[in-house]
Amino acid sequence: MSVNKKVPMRQCIGCCEMKNKREMLRILKTTEGEITIDVTGKKNGRGAYICASKECFEKAVKNRGLERSFKMSIPKEVYENLEKELNDIETK
Question: How many structural domains does the chain have?
Fold first, then answer.
């Protein structure tokens, strides 16, 4: 008798598909209002999930996925920093 463990699913803010939480990147808004990529997935704050692809990031920017998730307007510099962090992760 095997116990089926429930796989945590999250919705991508870019493509809006439900995927396994472990396959996705967590974008974090800290209590100070700073927005960064949470590599560990365990930091405190509000999280939004996105596929680790440039296409999904571009869709999320276009459809304002982060703004809706965090209920705030997001400056262009934040998107630029996130894009740079995403590129660093993709190249590893």
Answer: 1
